[in-house]
Specification:
Layout: E1 5-9, H1 14-25, E2 29-34, H2 42-51, E3 56-59, H3 65-74, E4 78-83, H4 90-95, H5 97-117, E5 122-128, H6 155-180, E6 189-195, E7 197-199, H7 218-226, E8 233-236, E9 248-249, E10 251-253, H8 254-271, E11 275-280, E12 286-287, H9 288-299, E13 305-308, E14 317-318, H10 323-329, H11 337-350, H12 361-365
Bound molecules: nicotinamide-adenine-dinucleotide and UDP-4-deoxy-4-formamido-beta-L-arabinopyranose.
């Protein structure tokens, strides 16, 4: 039996586009809804260039429930949702928290209501390691397992933690409702995927991260330094209790993240776990200095940096314990940090304008 169609919200964004590609490659039909707030429709052509298939695209805001209803009505073959659409800038979330709660929390409520009306019962949700907050307050919980108490420290993180609760309560209510009607209710399932630090691009060099504004994450910023759009990288603090004084993160290749979504969706279909959270990380922490070195190696020259003070809200160490995903889903990150750096460099150097330019011919011929 061929799998049903998957609705991918935020599917023209960074992680969503790689997941859409992986779904198409696995034989799923893909329907994307995105309002293009932080992405470009051009990515749909790149997906087609790579796999020969194009997702069905609807320019829809997830906070518009009536429009979501129209998409479900137009595509009755949708049987599951992967929900990426969100605002994601931590700093900005402290300035305009209401926008963050509106898009991330209210948008999810609209989606769940619309899904329920159309009897779509499975959802995979993009959560974040940011829900753990400063996990170093539990020293025996580094690397971080899913049972580490959560404690987000900013509105973005709190919006993600709230959505985890909203989804959990909704799935439980739907299961109870079904049981009260004499049915099993086991078709109602949700995967909460807590990603650590996504990194890298497609090895072809024609798909990558292309945010609409100025990047603020470490690797895209290093990319800007490498192509001369930025003079140097500012290293936020070298007085952390790590091997070289800089903070530790778990950088995971975006293609590994994408495969995690497919495996989680399969798990929901076959094992009916109810609601379950899984960390998606490699289990290996890297310092900022290590990342500068790894990306410099990919570029082939040393990249300039300057150490400045710590960034407000940063924590020493966010490294995943991915054992639960390894054991329960049979998922494991396969790609290395070197892969992520090399793929990112291929993307950045060949597409300095991201999706606002055509990919070079030699990439298309490769
Ligand atoms: P992204 O900004 O590239 O993708 C998000 C997409 O959602 C964009 O295409 C944007 O246009 C769309 N969107 C925003 N508001 C919308 C709305 N109201 N209606 C419809 N579409 C809307 O971000 P990403 O890095 O691909 O992140 C995807 C998901 O993963 C987000 O939920 C994010 O919070 C989560 N996440 C990201 C990271 C990270 O560091 N990139 C880490 C952990 C979790
Ligand atoms: C990584 C490391 C910085 C920029 C963020 C969100 C998190 C998740 C992933 C969505 C840190 C250091 C960075 C720079 C630097 N997103 N750094 N100079 O902060 O770990 O996580 O993205 O869910 O919620 O908070 O990622 O890439 O910004 O930083 O020294 O110019 O690089 O201090 O140690 P972060 P990042």
């Amino acid at each position: 039996m061929s799998p049903g169609a998957v609705l991918v919200t935020g599917g023209t964004g960074y992680i969503g586009s790689f997941t859409a590609l992986a779904l198409l490659e696995a034989g799923y039909e893909v329907v994307i809804v995105d309002n293009l707030y932080n992405s470009s429709q051009e990515v749909l052509n790149r997906i087609e260039l790579i796999c020969g298939k194009k997702p069905d695209f609807y320019n829809v805001d997830v906070t518009n429930e009536a429009t979501l209803d129209k998409v479900f009505a137009a595509r009755p073959d949708i049987d599951s949702v992967i929900h990426f659409a969100a605002l994601k800038a931590v700093g900005e979330s402290t300035e305009i928290p209401l926008e963050y709660y509106r898009t991330n929390v209210y948008g999810t409520i609209c989606l769940l209501r619309s899904m329920t009306r159309h009897n779509v019962t499975k959802i995979v949700f993009s959560s974040s390691a940011t829900v753990y907050g400063d996990a170093t307050r539990f020293p025996d919980m580094i690397p971080i397992p899913e049972h580490c108490p959560i404690g987000p420290t900013n509105p973005y993180g709190r919006s993600k933690a709230t959505v985890e609760t909203v989804i959990t309560d909704h799935i439980e209510a739907q299961r109870n409702k079904a049981k009260s009607e004499g049915k099993s209710g086991e078709e109602w399932n949700a995967a909460i995927l807590r990603y650590f630090n996504p990194a890298g691009s497609h090895p072809s060099g024609i798909m990558g991260e292309d945010p609409q504004g100025v990047p603020y994450n470490l690797l895209p910023l290093l990319g800007h330094v490498a192509v001369g759009k930025r003079e140097k990288l500012l290293v936020f603090g070298d007085d952390y209790a790590s091997s070289d004084g800089t903070a530790i993160r778990d950088y995971i290749h975006v293609m590994d993240l994408a495969s995690g979504h497919l495996i989680a969706l399969d798990h929901l279909r076959s094992k009916h776990p109810g609601v379950r959270a899984w960390n998606l990380g490699t289990g290996k922490g890297s310092t900022v200095f290590h990342m500068i070195k790894a990306f410099s190696n990919a570029v082939g020259r040393k990249l300039p940096y300057e150490v400045v003070g710590r960034r407000a809200g940063d924590v020493l160490d966010l490294t995943a314990n991915p054992t639960r995903a390894n054991q329960e889903l049979g998922w494991k990150a396969e790609k290395t940090l070197e892969d992520a750096c090399e793929d990112l460099w291929r993307w950045v150097k060949n597409n300095p304008q991201g999706y606002r330019q055509n990919p070079p011919d030699f990439l298309l011929e490769a």
